[in-house]
């Protein structure tokens, strides 16, 4: 297996969506190819860092304000529809 | 290896009965659906627009549109999938407006060579997240993902941050499964490449810019 073949399968490998036989081939490639091993590990870390450090959480006061605004708009929309029908 | 888990909050009440109740005019049922998914919609909108004001508007408009068009939701897909599709379209529309760039599109041609093949293969520090303080790390992560084309970062956010499947992401974005896979791989590799300059092991450099 060439490094480019390994890279093509990298996403499915990380997601665990590959067959056992392909997994064995990829494992073997990782065993001797240091560069792919580094790319594999650091790509996995990249995903984990983004998953573990949520950078755009919705703060509670804003969440309450948005929720009220949404429900007010929905209520108006429903009442306007009732008038028409 | 850890399997990626869904981040959406599965409530105890069946989603379809909430949708059905909302269709029949029960606003409290719709309010429950908003509470269930508002955090997800906000995160997705922020990632696409990179603007908090726009993200707030997207959250409001997406839920209002969903409410007004509930009759059209047939239940062939999950409510969340349908909702996110609305939110992604709203977010892209706002991004286009702000950038006054008519080319912003999910299927724009992003066939750049950059990031397709790794160039930086230095190993990272054993604990890359501990090199920086929480707020500095947040800034690095934001700056890094902002550099990706919208089509790449949207796929990355839905698949890797929200934990949706490739098939669900394809359905939400109206793209094919191979297109999602290709974008996801390139998004992951480009992010890895860009983060390497902050996180690489000190053995191979000073680890910082």
Walk me through the structure.
The complex is a heterodimer of chains A (85) and B (209). Chain A is an all-alpha fold. Helices cover 81% and strands 0% of the residues of chain A. Chain A is built from 4 helices and no strands. The termini of chain A are far apart. The relative contact order of chain B is 0.13. In chain B, helix 5 packs across helix 8 and helix 6 crosses helix 8. Helices cover 60% and strands 0% of the residues of chain B. Mean pLDDT of chain B is 84; it is low at 1-6 and 204-209. Chain B is built from 8 helices and no strands. The interface between A and B is large, with 41 and 51 residues.
SSE ordering of chain B: HHHHHHHH
Give the integer mean of the pLDDT values of chain A: 92
The best one-word shape of chain B is: elongated
Rg of chain B, rounded, reads 19 Å
Largest sheet of chain A: none
Low-confidence stretches of chain A: none
Biggest protein-protein contact in the assembly:
A-B, 41 and 51 residues
Please, what is the average pLDDT of chain B?
84
Q: Compute the separation of the termini of chain A in Å.
A: 67 Å
Identify the quaternary structure here.
heterodimer
Low-confidence stretches of chain B: 1-6, 204-209
The helicity of chain A comes to: over 70%
Number of strands of chain A: 0
Short synopsis of the structure:
The complex is a heterodimer of chains A (85) and B (209). Chain A is mainly α.
Provide the fold topology.
The complex is a heterodimer of chains A (85) and B (209).
Chain A: H1 3-14, H2 20-32, H3 34-52, H4 60-84
Helix pairs in contact in A: 2-3
Chain B: H1 15-23, H2 27-49, H3 52-68, H4 79-99, H5 134-146, H6 150-161, H7 166-173, H8 177-199
Helix pairs in contact in B: 1-2, 2-3, 2-4, 3-4, 4-7, 5-8, 6-8, 7-8
